[in-house]
Amino acid sequence: MTDVLRRGRASLAFSFFAQGVAFALLVTRIPAIQDRYGVSDALLPVFLAAVPILAGAGSVSTEQLVKRIPPSRVLRWSQPVVLLALLGVGAGESLVVLGVSLAAFGLAVGALDASMNMLGVSLQRSYGRSIMLSFHAVYSLGGILGASLAWVGAHWHLALWVSYLPVVIVLLPAALVGSRWYVDGEAGAGAAGAAGAAGAAAGEAATGEAAGIVFKLLLPLCLVMSFAYIGDSTVSNWSAKYLQDVLGSSEQLATVPYNVYMVTTLLGRAIGDFGVRRFGAVVVVRGGAVVAALGFAVVASAPGPWVGMLGFTLLGLGLCVLVPQTFAAAGRLFPGASDAAVARLNVFNYVGFLIGSPLVGALGDAWTYRGAMLVPMVLVLVTLVYARSFDTQPDRYGGGHERPHTADVGRGSNGL
Predict the structure, then answer these.
(1) 260 vs 18: CA distance, rounded Å
(2) What is the mean pLDDT of residues 249-269?
(3) Entry pTM
């Protein structure tokens, strides 16, 4: 069984890595995509907003799918769709092809993100210790590689399909081969017909009062997820503009903050599981929220670009722990319905992404961009209020002695 878990962990880590590469290749080449298809500035936000909206729909659909089939099967087929859709974006000639490719990418990404984190939560339970941050660290590594490949493509003025095709040729067969070793945990409601039927029956038996308790338990994690992605989208969408327009950096230097942010995210996640094992998830989440808030404060008050760079470095170290620990906390809170919890929680990933960039842009135009940076700072600090939702005691990752009220809710409701 140990070898099975190890292979399952390695294959799932590769899926996180491949997704990081694919997503970075898409978002970092948006100007080139706009030029290729002649998308106007007015129409571009529509295309960009459609991806997270459809991803949210894909995540909700995955909640229903895993009642009938294992999450591993959803992941096995959604990852190739993401990669092929990326290639479609790069190789298309018309706006119709772009729209269809982005729609497929969005729906598949929602299913992919949800199923990957479902498998990660169940693997962590089987391991009996924190490993969730390691998966997201590999995602960050993939993002760094994808952004680097995008830079190469832009530097050498390569056509989009020329940049994307080698990546798809390498990652697609590797992902399909690796999918043979995915491990569905006990939370995979579709892993066996009897388990799925029992979960459905439990969901039908849940009362309105129990559903209300479930919502109250999940809501803090949903808010933390949204706040984390508002912070993340602020960095990804506004760091370059902020450094150049507000702090007076050169155009070349303005490209550095996001790369620094990704590197520090990788480092923070690489060591984060050790922190959770040593100090507990509550301490790690509180520390991450404080460091991220400090990062936004430094960015907002920076007198020049190098101090601003320090702020973005702190943001990477602080925000990186919040999302993986939010998924892990959902799995602990609902041991009998963790797949449904992860799928619904994943929707708030896209909610935060949709809100973050327009929020900062609107506040920056109406007020100042320095002042706009204080809003995600305050939202991240709100995480401190909900930190107890990340408590791993008294059950340290699935030891079989869940807190009575959460265990009862998990057994009493299949859907959240």
Answers:
(1) 20
(2) 86
(3) 0.85
